[in-house]
Write a structure and sequence with these properties.
Alpha-Beta Plaits, 8 strands, RBD_domain_sf, 5 helices, about 210 residues
Length: about 210
């Protein structure tokens, strides 16, 4: 397995062995060339699974994170919801959590842009939302700050990181006002309890809205 295609499986049932872990993934159609059981700093058992590629690992995480592991000889296992994260994140704080989503989003899109060079339409990134947040609710949160040209909600990259959204304002002042007012706002159902709002470089993300 690739070192960079290794993920940790948290909250595994007591008595889980590396074979259990291997079978858990195999049953779902994911071959792990390498699995082992490790212990976290605070003494909890954690599964370690390596995959053949990062793509397979991400697919497995999407499919199996937030599910339960079932063993015939361990009925209590079915009540433990496991969650998976990429090895190396080291039990992140909420801020670090958001960093990783943002890094992922920015790889997909483009780097953020310094406030003072903004002109023309401006996009706000909003992360860590409740998974089922209605578009109407987001619109009503962001509408007071200015004219919204477009609002786009994306499904979670990992279930436990929440949905994220892009809100395109017709000018940067509205976007900056929204960021200042809404960043860190508490939201029921948000995986970390509060949302993260930031300026997002818009050029690649919104073809057609390139400012000047």
């Amino acid at each position: 397995g690739l070192k960079e295609a290794t993920c940790l499986v948290h909250n595994i049932p007591e008595g889980t062995t590396w074979e259990h872990l291997k079978n858990f993934f195999a049953r779902a159609g994911y071959e792990c060339p390498y699995t082992r059981i490790d212990t976290t700093k605070d003494g909890k058992a954690v599964g370690v699974a390596s995959f053949d590629s990062i793509e397979r690992m991400v697919e497995a995480m999407r499919a199996l994170s937030n599910s339960t592991m079932f063993f015939a000889n361990n009925p209590s296992a079915s009540s433990k919801v496991i969650h998976m994260e990429i090895d190396g994140l080291k039990r992140p704080t909420p801020e670090a959590f958001f960093r990783t989503i943002q890094d992922y989003v920015e790889k997909e899109d483009s780097p953020p842009i310094a406030e003072n060079s903004l002109e023309g339409p401006c996009t706000v990134y909003c992360g860590g939302l409740a998974n089922d947040v209605p578009v109407e609710e987001l619109t009503s949160m962001f509408a007071p700050f200015g004219q919204i040209l477009k609002l786009d909600v994306k499904p979670p990259f990992h279930e436990w990181k929440g949905s994220y959204a892009f809100i395109l304002y017709d000018n940067p002042d509205s976007a900056i006002a929204a960021v200042k007012a809404l960043n860190g706002m508490e939201m029921p159902g948000a995986p970390n309890g509060s949302i993260q709002v930031d300026i997002q470089q818009q050029r690649k993300h919104w073809p057609g809205y390139t400012g000047r």
